[in-house]
Known about the structure:
With 345 residues, the chain is an alpha/beta fold. The protein has nine helices and 16 strands. The chain has two domains: 231 residues, 3-Layer(aba) Sandwich (Aminopeptidase); 108 residues, Alpha-Beta Plaits, CATH 3.30.70.360. Helices cover 33% and strands 25% of the residues. Strand 1 and strand 2 form a beta hairpin. It starts with a helix and ends with a helix.
Amino acid sequence: LDVSHLQRSAKYLAELFAEVTGKPAEIIPGANGPHVHWKGSDDTNVLIVGHHDTVFPLGTTATRPFSIDGDVARGPGIFDMKAGIVQAIHGLSAIRDSYHVEVLITADEEVGSYSSRDLIEERARATGAVLVLEPSADGGALKIARKGVGTFTVHISGRASHAGLEPEKGINALVELATQVQRIVAMARPELGTTVTPTVATAGNAENVVPDAAMIKVDVRVVLPEEKERIEREMSQLKPVVDGAVIKVSGSVNRPPMHESAGRKLFGVAETVAKELGIKNLQGVAVGGGSDGNFTAAIGVPTLDGMGAVGGGAHGVTEHVLISTMGERAALVAGVARALVNRGE
């Protein structure tokens, strides 16, 4: 995260809210960057959640700038989730008579929402219903359930020695890592929806030196709360097999599972609004990725996710949105918000 650039982004968003809706937005400082909070009135009962950070490093737009080719707009972060934010802001401008809605755009969702989680949960409890601007699933489907998500880091310490002259005097952190990878992978329970995936590893710094340090990062996804507890317990209980090696584990499943019951109720409202707008065959699906909707659903607040843009390629070089869908998606998020306000959800 680059706080200075997130400050620029937050300032731009606050100005856009004021320009389009006629109401100012507040910029809230955060440890990982500023959040943008807009309220249509003092009395709100719907929260729309998004984020203005992306996964891409600074400079990505220099080699892959924003572009439009027919109905397809491309660029880093356009699908996740710049287009969704734009849709929400312009959609809200159409319901000025029903401004019991607030929007919170955070700065650190892509890195775990560590500086924004408390604020998200506070505003979710205060409003009682949450719409999340994460991009849609395939074909524009909304997301009514998500897996819990976590990242663990395993650090292994050993002792360096010359690999040719006295390898026996070393404690090979890489050999220890190889054993631990197999143990970690074995924690997966695909039949229960639990995946455990090593994603990044490092070891050593020279080809003729026994490595004295190694590291692995592990992505974990769970459906069941008891699986969250099991994985966290088993990761914390990893023991070294190489004499003298030391293991240190950090991390957790920090995003709890979002169960279907959290999204199903609001999905019914979205179906009704979609039919009124002429959007056919709106679907609600469960997905493996996590979002800030995991937090709001876990505290018992009805939550509907995937309200953002239609497109694909999130986090990759093919990231894009379909321009022709943006108007109807703006109308959908605004229409669902209005329906929830009118129902007092």
